[in-house]
Amino acid sequence: MMRLAYGLLALLWMTPPAMATNSYFLPGDAFFHVTLTAETLKNLEEQSAPYVVDYSLQDTSPFVFCGYAGYRCAEVDGLNKAFVANLKLAYDRMREFNFREVQEVPGEDGVVLKEINGLHLFLVRDDFEIEGPRFHLGLRYNEDWVKETQKFSEFYHLGCFVQTAEAIEASWRDSTVVPGLEVKLPDVVPQHGQAIEEPIKIQGKIKAVITRDGSMEPFFKRDNVDMYVVTEKGIAIYYSEDGKWELLKMIPAVEEK
Fold this sequence. Notes:
By secondary structure, the chain is α+β, with helices and mostly antiparallel strands. The chain has one domain. It is built from six helices and 14 strands. It has helices spanning 2-14, 38-45, 81-94, 145-150, 165-173, 217-221; strands at residues 22-23, 32-36, 51-54, 68-69, 73-76, 102-107, 110-115, 119-125, 183-184, 200-202, 206-211, 226-231, 234-241, 244-252. The strands form four sheets. The chain has a six-stranded antiparallel beta sheet with strand order 2-8-11-12-13-14. A four-stranded mixed beta sheet has the order 3-5-10-9, with no helix packed on it.
């Protein structure tokens, strides 16, 4: 009965109403999501500490129509040149079988090529247990998401990367088990329906989990998909089978030139 109640409640919250907000990062979220493209990597390679990344709503729940909530940018203490070099290596390896797709779009200096199938990149805590049965990619695990959304709007929308009752139930049920990212917020008062542009600061050690683009549901089910887990020390490649992640290969860090 409790499971049914969770499921029905989750279905109510995941239905995208016309009056709801699009949520970027909210304090308490387990991840900060970035779309990883060749352009993203070029931007990171041109930066020096502190590295800044933008939150992406790519492949999350459908766009809704009452503005935005949350924080759109982040400074990441755990990023450095070695980490960025490993991100590029992971991107290049994944593009060997998940080919880059581009399309022509208007730009300031004429037509430019835009990458349209950027990879998912989830920044998570270093102690996020990739192989743990209660740790799933794309779930916010944020028990305070309603309270945090209220600071921006009276309209609530969870905005999950996995739109199933089972996934949203897991996100709520295990929100006290899976810790959120450690962040420092900018001293900015939220405005109604507007995301905050000033960056948060993601503190502590992190790792980046990279997957192909598209639905994250197969990753929740751990159904014959792979992911690359990146740190400054190297890359771990995992493959899922029968609902479990198995470590396939370790790639050492890129040597500094």
